[in-house]
Here is the input.
Amino acid sequence: MKIAVLVKLVPDSEAQIKLNADKSWIETRDISWVMGPYDEYAIEEALKTAGDKGGEVTVISYGDEQAVDGLRKALAMGVHNAVRVKREGEQDLLGTANALAEALKDNGYDLIFTGFKANDDDCAAIGTMVGTLLDIPVITEVSKLEVGEGNVRAERDIEGGREIIEASMPCVITAQKGLNEPRYASLKGIMMAKKKQIEEVVVTHTESRIEMAGLNYPPERAAGKVVGEGAEAVPELVRLLREEAKVIE
Ligand SMILES: Cc1cc2nc3c(=O)[nH]c(=O)nc-3n(C[C@H](O)[C@H](O)[C@H](O)COP(=O)(O)OP(=O)(O)OC[C@H]3O[C@@H](n4cnc5c(N)ncnc54)[C@H](O)[C@@H]3O)c2cc1C
Here is the structure.
């Protein structure tokens, strides 16, 4: 079985995000980057499936040089092959999905895993768009997966219940938390990943349709007010919440 996993590097949640000079994008230097957490579920499921059914897992990232760090982490977790699709210039969702679809097509993948969302831009769209561009089924936010002969059975958490969906392969699965417990990379895996070759691919189909009109910081929060200490402060706190903040009646 041939399995692909799409991974994206995102800023570490501890990183101090600053906008660039013309506020068109974030300043990417001096940030530490990590693999998106949902991508780790995607990798784990791909590795488990390849372990159960036999097959190879290829991890693919569309990005600049930083993407290599994510690919090495995936190699250290145990994936067999890594591909960086070179990103040059800015691309919106469609440009990104086009580039990934071009890198995937004609390679005979039976299953394509993605995280359900990348927790920086949070679009939760690439998996669906890639599946649509490749004209194959997509099951989103999967929290349980069974892979059969030529088909999959997936479960999704929905408000008040669980949805069970079947699809034929090839298909795209976007991974939700709960799908599995991602493994840690072993020391041996980390050492081996350093030596592994990362294939580089150039794609041409990167059409974008939207422009970034601007990015803004959230409005600054007003300074807090100390109304006193202990139980004696409660009446004044309640008065301020009622009369000034008007959040209680
Ligand atoms: C006008 C414009 C310009 C932009 N320019 C840039 C730019 O120069 N550089 C830049 O990094 N971003 C750029 N972006 C952001 C970029 O388009 C988004 O990161 C991308 O569309 C994916 O959206 P997302 O991160 O919300 O992914 P989601 O849809 O939330 O991601 C879901 C899953 O898809 C997979 N995935 C997402 N992105 C990738 C990827 N690149 N490679 C492999 N798998 C992936 C992962 O498995 C991920 O968990 C730009 C956006 C706009 C609107």
Remarks:
- The first helix runs from residue 37 to 53.
- The radius of gyration is 22 Å.
- The pocket of flavin-adenine dinucleotide is lined by residues 6-8, 36, 38-39, 42, 61-63, 90-93, 96, 100, 114-115, 117-118, 120-127, 210-212 (CB under 6 Å).
